[in-house]
UniProtKB/TrEMBL annotation:
GO molecular function, one term: isomerase activity
UniProt protein name: 3-dehydroshikimate dehydratase
Species in which this protein is naturally found: Streptomyces prasinus
Assigned protein family: Belongs to the bacterial two-domain DSD family.
EC nos: 4.2.1.118
Record PROSITE patterns: VOC
Catalytic activity, as annotated: 3-dehydroshikimate = 3,4-dihydroxybenzoate + H2O
Amino acid sequence: MRTSIATVSLSGTLTEKLTAAARAGFDGVEIFENDLLASPLAPREIRARCADLGLTVDLYQPMRDVEAVPAELFARNLRRARHKFTLMRELGADTVLVCSSVDPEAVDDDALAAAHLYELADLAQDFGVRVAYEALAWGRHVSTYDHAWRIVEAAGHPALGTCLDSFHILSRGSDPQGIEDIPGEKIFFLQLADAPLPAMDVLQWSRHHRCFPGQGGFDVAGLVRHVLRTGYAGPLSLEVFNDVFRQAEAAPTAVDARRSLLALQEEVGAVRETGPSAAPTAAPAVPAPVVPTGFAFAELVTADSEPLTGLLAALGFARTARHRGKPVDLWQQGEARILVNTGTAVRRDGTRIAAVGLESPDPAGAADRAEALLAPVLPRRRAPEDAPLDAVAAPDGTELFFCDAGNGARHTGWRADFEDVGRPPAAPGVRRIDHLALTQPWHHFDEAALFHRSVLGLDAEDSVDVADPYGLQRSRAVSNPDGTVRIVLTVGAAPADDTVHAQHIAFATDDVVAAARRLRDAGAPLLPIPANYYDDLAARHEFADGELETYRELGILYDRDEAGGSLRHCYTRTVGRVFLELLQRDGGHRGYGARNAPVRLAAQHAVRAARALGDG
């Protein structure tokens, strides 16, 4: 299907927004009135710019507070409309969005509303314009899509139809099933937006917290299926009011927006599958998801490897291999593999996770899907003998490599690029990487969740807000079905505080007490946890004799889920932007210890403050 985006969804000048939309692959745009009013370009020049970019002007919006008002006010509204329709003819837009009135003078009279909309549509028809009437969720008298349709149907004008907006429909809890009773040719436009599900005033919710489909909690796909069953043949268009998007760069936001529509079309069956038997269609082809099955490796870049490798050695890792042509060492324990790279330029914030290897049953297919969903494919400088590896960039810049499943333990695939220099421990205390936590730039959090869901095929859990001493830290986990790939996406309360809001690697162990003791005895300091935490733990849970004292001694935190599963975990101090976690899951516990996160964050702040004073 054709795709469109409202200029209000992007930041920048109108020219910047149009350029970003075109480069992201959109077919058309909705011109938001404020963007036109602020533009130095005349409507004819905007029309020409859109044509040069290959964009159609699919909608001009909004026209507010038109219908069911006193006669004198309606006469003024028609004069205003005549001016707008003249402008639209110059702009090349043939459809105008008319929102249900919120004017205090509007009256609750459907017959009057229908008569006014008929007269408006009759005037619009003289200019070659159609009127799409939309129910605002906070409309004074018309606030639901079915009510708006009844008025349109009663008016009965060929140039009058309805505009359906997923936010206005789903935010009120309306049943979208009734959309199928509307003739497709009378649905003049479809606007799509998702949103989280907070409890707040609907107007505030709409104006500040909409997001692209797949980033929130609405069943946008279900609504679109109902619309398509009517025979609707117009574009899928995004209209998203979001404070973050309006401050972020327009180009990556437009790409994220386009990806959301590609993923949405795939979900509703409007995207054809690839293959020789696929029927020819104008819809884009997106290869099927290839869900990763495990972590092949995590790569850390560092200017000074000694603190990092000392920490890995204390954890029981051994240096087992060296890259044939690059200053990259492989450290391994069990199925956990860490690459330490000292040859890549290190940013000001020091040691960080730069790349992740994902084991995949079909690396080429995974890369093809990533490219089809607009993930930036990374060029690689490699010697002829290097293993061919496809990589894409996640929104935070982390490189994601698609590796043959299982090749991490054999001298094939990426592992063939390394020469053996040692052996992994015979009796590992760490079994594998349990999960990674990657801090996102504040304006890429929703984009990152959509990216990992759509590009990698991972399932997303609900967002969680965690109390930080200086605000809130927001996190959202994505994982494959069996939990062998888990990634926690976070954005912190203080974006500049990279020491606290850092990345981390969590290692799974069968005995966190033994692993923590080994780490401590090797001289690697564990994160100190306040005594008050353990006093509270004693009040909430019963422990075996000496168990709680052991946790207190080693800084081990404890969590229990509703099904009786338990999580025991502890943390190292931070090196650069990275700290490490040891964790033991029992009884099927699948969480990440969110209850303990405020304690961990406060402890990390305390360590950082002590270091600043020269005491730690």
